[in-house]
Design a protein that fits this description.
Elements (H helix, E strand, L loop, with lengths): L2 H15 L8 E4 L5 H8 L5 E5 L6 E2 L15 E7 L8 H7 E12 L4 H9 L23 E8 L3 E7 L1
Length: 164
């Protein structure tokens, strides 16, 4: 794992995950290598589900097809989308399956700094992207949710917690 990605995972765990109540139902969209799910399961969270386009996710498929994947409307307390929304606009789907008062926890590149992330990837300092960043968005422009917390990290990334 590239050094910047490893460092970011530790920071994300503290900023986002540690404060989630242990009994909450959690969906991670784009669970990838499973680091967040492993962290949560090892920490005692029992109601975690990982979704990704490829195995070994608990649910394999596209979040935009949530109805066909057996996911129920308003069924999760927390949805995690770390480094996902730049690949696919899934805010509508997340809104539909998040409980009223639930939280969407998101990270994504700052759109105007994506060029630098490409350079860091080329230098093998940051994790290689899994697909194009066709859906880059500034979190301040996300209108479905109420923004609870927001911060810019290292002028490259935006971290946000939204509520429904």
């Amino acid at each position: 794992m590239p050094i910047l990605s490893s460092y970011a995972q530790k920071k994300k765990a503290r900023y986002f995950l540690d404060g989630i109540p242990k009994d909450f139902r959690i969906l991670e969209v784009g669970c990838g290598n499973g680091w967040a799910g492993n962290y949560l399961k090892e920490g005692g969270w029992e109601h975690y589900v990982g979704l990704d386009l490829v195995p070994p996710a608990d649910i394999v498929g596209d979040i935009r097809n949530w109805k066909n994947l057996g996911i129920e409307e308003e069924s999760f307390d927390v949805i995690i989308v770390f480094e996902v929304v730049e690949h696919v606009d899934c805010f509508d789907s997340c809104y539909d399956i998040l409980k009223l008062g639930g939280q969407l926890m998101a990270t994504s590149p700052m759109p105007h700094m994506d060029w630098l992330l490409k350079w860091l990837e080329a230098m093998r300092l940051n994790q290689k992207r899994t697909g194009p960043h066709d859906s880059l968005v500034y979190f301040k422009d996300v209108s479905l949710f109420k923004q609870k917390r927001f911060k810019t990290v290292g002028f490259l990334s935006q971290w946000g917690v939204f509520t429904k």
